[in-house]
Write a structure and sequence with these properties.
Elements: H1 5-12, E1 17-21, E2 24-27, H2 28-43, E3 52-56, H3 61-73, E4 76-79, H4 86-96, E5 100-103, E6 117-118, H5 120-124, E7 141-147, E8 155-160, H6 161-175, E9 182-185, H7 192-204, E10 207-210, H8 216-225, E11 230-233, H9 235-244, E12 254-257, H10 264-272, E13 284-290, E14 295-299, H11 302-307, E15 314-315, E16 320-324, E17 337-342, E18 349-350, H12 354-360, E19 361-362, E20 365-374, E21 380-384, E22 390-392, E23 395-397, H13 399-406, E24 412-422, E25 426-435, H14 443-451, E26 462-465, H15 479-485
Parallel strand pairs: 1-10, 3-4, 3-5, 5-6, 9-10, 9-11, 11-12, 12-13, 25-26
Antiparallel strand pairs: 1-2, 7-8, 8-18, 13-14, 14-15, 16-17, 17-20, 19-20, 20-21, 22-23, 24-25
Length: about 500
């Protein structure tokens, strides 16, 4: 019988460093033993293979243990964004039918989520019971990762262990693999990018250096003192690091930069920063990926990024990217169309949403909705990340979800949410509102209303009232005109 990857690595190199968190370090044997205890505690709650386990926690070693414990027990992990409001969380928990949610909240009182909620400290105090690991198969579903949806509701992308396995293999071929690699992880573990690093490192037998989040001082200290060789960042994080740093450590060999479009000037600035004891070396590898393809799809190596600023490179090994027109026909090099991804990293589908799955996955190919083109060398250039998608501080926001909330306010007749360029966050949310004729509403009132229903990063920071929304002759809102209407405003 196959074993999960952590167990296999614990047998292969038990003394190898697996996880670092602050002053704490676990080798593979120690991490495996710790995960065994968490498995026994979960088994004591009568959780069985195939059930969904919700985890709503910030980055912490306990989350790493729970990710591996769920894999060992055959539980389907439902990572929950800690920034969501109670109604948003309750909907995701109910939608996936979670048997249990492990989480903690300020004040100690958990929200009503429709299933039992237990804090990790309370679970840690339970005595483990004997358990039988579930049979491990690459085809087993590992997680349901929620990604924003154009309908206004998030969709749960079902990822398998095969998705992670082939993603890890392809990433190693593209980025290289050193036995002493230490991957600094400050991306949220409830995002696919954070979880991908956990599984890749377990497969490689390398170390994860986990951060509680993006704390500028802590991350800079880790880069300088902990022998970091790789780090995954979004552009916002890199901007802030460059505001503080005067050099990169000699150990650092690659900065994987994704999550949002990165300006070539930002990449150039990062690459021009010298090493501690050596001249500048290209370090930044721009990457394109999405939850539905288990993170990485295409990546441009640092040296190539110097030659082709703005590209995200060639598709990874085992993955193909095709550009198609509205009828699904393949377009030649240089022609802009929709990105279609094929390969073993493509998700199994959306949880209990056959219609969305059928629209997105056709004959095994993932129709991303993203626009771009391939040049004559086969390198990918992005033009737009999904129709209407707003990426703010590395978080994805679909306007339809925010618009639906704003239109619940009795004073709103119509709403259009757009993203405005922002020097630090990439984009900032703005909303153009048509008030009800018989109602009086203010931007401040709408922002306060949104705070009760939406995570902070989804709240429009700029709201403007208008008589009508600009529309095409077919009745579609002309979002570019809405963006233009904010052009005279200065983003905060």
């Amino acid at each position: 019988m196959f074993t999960d990857w952590l167990k296999a690595q614990a047998r292969a190199r038990p003394q190898g460093i697996a996880l670092v968190f602050g002053a704490q370090t676990w080798n593979y044997q120690e991490l495996d033993d710790w995960v065994e205890g968490w498995c026994g505690r979960l088994a004591g709650l009568s959780l069985t293979a195939g059930e969904r386990l919700g985890v709503c926690l910030p980055n912490h070693p306990v989350v790493v243990a729970l990710v591996h414990a769920a894999a060992r027990l055959g539980l389907i992990l439902v990572p929950l964004n800690t920034r969501l409001t109670p109604p948003e969380l309750a909907w995701q928990v109910t939608e996936t039918g979670c048997t249990l949610v492990i989480g903690e909240w300020d004040g100690g009182e958990p929200p009503l989520l429709g299933c039992p909620v237990i804090p990790p400290d309370a679970l840690a105090q339970r005595d483990p019971v004997p358990f039988q690991p579930a049979p491990f198969s690459l085809d087993t579903r590992q997680a349901i990762v929620f990604t924003s949806g154009t309908s206004g509701r998030p969709k749960g992308a079902m990822l398998t262990f095969a998705n992670h396995f082939w993603s890890a293999a392809a990433s190693a071929f593209r980025l290289g693999l050193w036995p002493e690699d230490r991957w600094l992880t400050c991306l949220p573990l409830y995002h696919v990018g954070g979880q991908a690093i956990l599984f890749r490192s377990a497969l490689y037998g390398t170390a994860v250096v986990l951060q509680a989040g993006f704390d500028l001082e802590a991350i800079s200290h880790s880069l300088d003192r902990e022998g970091i060789t790789l780090v995954s960042l979004v552009p916002t994080m890199l901007v802030r690091l460059l505001e503080r740093r005067t050099h990169w450590p000699d150990s650092l060999r690659l900065i994987l930069l994704g999550g949002a479009a990165a300006e070539p000037a930002l990449i150039q600035q990062a690459n021009q920063l010298p090493r501690l004891t050596a001249p500048p070396t290209p370090l930044v590898a721009p990457t394109y990926g999405l939850s539905e393809a288990a993170s990485q799809v295409a990546t441009l190596l640092p040296a190539e990024a110097q030659i082709k600023p703005g590209s995200v490179g060639k598709p990874l090994l085992f993955t193909t990217v095709e550009i198609v027109d509205e009828q699904g026909y393949t377009l030649p090099s240089g022609k802009i169309g929709e990105l279609v991804v094929r390969g073993p990293t493509v998700m199994a589908g959306y949880w209990q949403d056959a219609a969305a799955t059928g629209q997105t996955i056709r004959a095994g190919a993932l129709f991303t909705g993203d626009l771009g083109y391939l040049d004559g060398d086969g390198d990918l250039w992005l033009v737009q990340r999904r129709t209407d998608l707003i990426v703010t501080g590395g978080e994805n926001v679909y306007p339809a979800e925010v618009e639906a909330v704003l239109k619940q306010h009795p004073g709103v007749a119509a709403a259009c949410v757009v993203g405005l360029p922002h020097p630090q966050w990439g984009q900032q949310l703005a909303a153009l509102i048509v008030p009800h004729p018989a109602q009086t509403v203010t931007p401040e009132e709408l922002i306060a209303f949104a705070r009760h229903h939406l995570a902070g990063y989804k709240i429009p920071r700029l709201i403007r009232l208008t008589d009508t929304l600009p529309q095409t002759s077919s009745g579609k809102i002309e979002r570019w005109k809405v963006v233009s209407s904010f052009s005279f405003l200065v983003a905060e």
